[in-house]
Amino acid sequence: MKYNVLYIIESMNLGGTEKQLCELINGLSANGVVRPHLCTLKPSSDLLDSINCPKIDLGTRRLLSLDIPQKIKKLARFCNDYEICLVQTFFQDPSVIGAMLKLLLPVKLIITFRDLGFWRTRLENFKMRLAYKRADGFIANSLAVKKHFSINDGLALDKIKVIYNGFDMTELEGYRSGSVEDGLREIGIVANLNRPVKRVQDFIAAAALVRAKNPNVVFSVIGDGHLRMDLERFTDSLGLNQVVNFVGRLENPLEHIANFSVGVITSETEGLSNAIIEYMACSVPVVATNTGGNPELVLEGENGFLYPVGNVEVLADRILKLLDDNVNQRIGRNNRERVASNLSLSYMVKCYENHYQDMLSGCPLQPTSLGGQL
User: Fold this and answer.
1) Within the chain, which residues score under 70 in pLDDT?
2) What is the pTM of this model?
3) What does DSSP say about strands 34-40 and 55-57: parallel, antiparallel, or unpaired?
4) What is the pLDDT of residue 307?
5) Which of 23, 182, 183, 256 has its CA 20 to 30 Å from the CA of residue 349?
6) pLDDT tens by residue, 173-183
7) End-to-end CA separation in angstroms for the chain
8) pLDDT (0 to 100) of residue 324
9) Planar angle of CA 238, 239, 242, nearest 5 degrees
């Protein structure tokens, strides 16, 4: 039996969640068990053309605009035309749209959780809890995210399914490391420079400590945003402007990541970091904050190290440990094997297919396993 599923998201402009959804839709289309459909609330570029499925754009910039009822009816007609039986939403406003749609149509509604609620305000909490009451189930991308929403929103644990993000290993074909100057090691971070919670200033502060003990290292920051200018000024104040390179936003950062000797995540909050998975897939050892879903990916001493949020001294120490060639190569191999075995795109797509079938047949949730960690 084939299922018609509708995904609702704000836009398909380039981002971690948007890329994951693009790969999920294309993977489901290729398998043929699920027929995916896409609804965006705002005009999109970047990833939209690479998605092979029926699409509708509501052109909605504000959830409380006067034309929202007409937009919902338009979406309901789209769902009727394509015989949609299940709706899955990403982010806050799309989840409210999904809840409104469920008032008009006999569809199953899944709301997706992908962070630890850094967006929470009283208004957002009120709005989302109304939407949660209409949902038939939820999907979280880590155990930490599942626990957070269960505790903070009173959601039953057995209604929240964990499906980890997936990585397409074929993306690495043809990439070769070696652009870094001979004799130098590159330490890198991939981060959204619009979000203070990413704490990229900690990466730069640690760079100064690492350079003091090992001058044969350089540092790269992949990402862009309004915080970049302040971070560049901070870099200059530490005298690191010649060794910290602000690469900017890259459509596909993997070729650059392949040069890293160590990949770093400094966030104070994370659901499940796509950047960590990309580091691991590129055989790069990881140093990450001990928060959110990071411990579900990084096993202490096995494929990297964890450190307390904001502790720059420990961060620098862990980076220096991973610059040891023997440790670096062993951990790098472990990382690539872990992604190929437990975090592949094909496995993620299969988990979604199975879950949709369970939801539509009334079966109980089955646990998801991540290589012995869960």
Assistant:
1) 174-182, 362-374
2) 0.89
3) parallel
4) 98
5) 256
6) 766 555 556 67
7) 31
8) 86
9) 130
**For residue 370, what pLDDT is reported?**
53
Domain ranges of the chain: 3-166+344-361, 170-342
Q: How far apart are CA 282 and CA 273, in angstroms?
A: 15
Q: With beta carbons less than 8 A apart as the criterion, state whether 319 and 187 touch.
A: yes
* Residue in the structure block whose two tokens are 């957002």: 124
Q: Which two tokens stand for residue 343?
A: 């975090």
Q: How far out from the chain centre does Cα 342 lie? A: 16
Pick the CATH number of 170-342 from 3.40.50.2000, 3.40.50.300, 3.30.70.890, 3.40.50.150: 3.40.50.2000
3-166+344-361, what's its fold? Rossmann fold (3.40.50)
Residues 6+ apart with CB under 8 A from 198: 191, 192, 266, 267
Alpha carbons 289 and 333: distance in angstroms, whole number:
21
For the segment 330-358, what is each residue's pLDDT rounded down to a tens digit? 888 889 889 998 999 999 999 999 999 99
Query: For residue 223, how far is the Cα from the chain centroid?
Result: 14
**AA identity, residue 263:** G
pLDDT for residue 308: 98
Residue 234 has φ and ψ, to the nearest 5°, of: -65, -40
DSSP string, 44-74: --TTGGG--S-EEE---S-TT-TTHHHHHHH
